[in-house]
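Propose amino acids for all 222 sites.
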């Protein structure tokens, strides 16, 4: 899943990005409200972490502009202020949740997961995907093949998740890169092939089919 952090405290933003990347999310970071609005408007994100006090445009205005444009991305607002008025204003502009600095990283991750669960994949569909003897629980982040649980790294799971939520459809390498790696990734795009190869080895060779020139398709398990 892709997250966008809009936070002008660079050390905090980069620290959050590092931690959330380790959790398996693809994370982009910007430090200006106007840039955050532009990025959130132009790219599909699964969740937005939005500071209130920002240069260019404050978080209230960014949130309000996104909602006015029909963008329903879940928004978790951050602020150094503390008070019922600030919280009410943030929620009134369309934010989904509110966290006051300083906050626990564990609490932040829990809030993020709660917002993502609330929204749910495919607009509220079940997070458990079953294809033959393959079961992928995107909520609990667990994978089972037949009766055995398969241990995957965060990135391996993220790649499999992109395939399983669109099982039967072709998912391009570019789409996987966009959702699993962050916006600034400049490495070898063939990294996707490496992870697909690892998934085939851990799961089953014929489970993920290469559609030449188009991408990959998750076949129904046997």
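Proposal:
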């Amino acid at each position: 899943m892709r997250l966008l952090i809009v936070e002008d405290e660079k050390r905090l933003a980069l620290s959050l990005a590092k931690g959330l990347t380790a959790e398996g999310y693809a994370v982009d970071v910007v430090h200006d409200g106007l840039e955050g609005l532009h990025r959130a408007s132009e790219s599909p994100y699964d969740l937005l972490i939005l500071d209130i006090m920002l240069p260019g445009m404050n978080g209230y205005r960014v949130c309000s502009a996104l909602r006015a444009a029909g963008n329903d991305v879940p928004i978790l607002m951050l602020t150094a202020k503390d008070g019922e008025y600030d919280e009410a204003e943030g929620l009134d502009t369309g934010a989904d949740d509110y966290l006051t600095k300083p906050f626990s990283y564990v609490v932040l991750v829990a809030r993020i997961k709660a917002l993502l669960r609330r929204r749910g994949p495919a607009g509220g569909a079940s997070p458990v995907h079953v294809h033959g003897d393959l079961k992928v629980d995107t909520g609990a982040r667990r994978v089972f093949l037949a009766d055995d649980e398969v241990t995957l790294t965060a990135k391996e799971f993220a790649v499999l998740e992109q395939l399983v939520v669109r099982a039967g459809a072709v998912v391009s390498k570019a789409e996987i890169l966009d959702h699993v790696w962050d916006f600034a990734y400049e490495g070898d795009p063939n990294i996707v092939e490496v992870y697909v190869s690892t998934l085939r080895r851990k799961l089953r060779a014929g489970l993920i089919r290469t559609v030449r020139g188009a991408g990959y398709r998750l076949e129904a398990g046997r």
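The CA atoms of residues 141 and 170 lie 22 Å apart. The chain has a mean pLDDT of 83.
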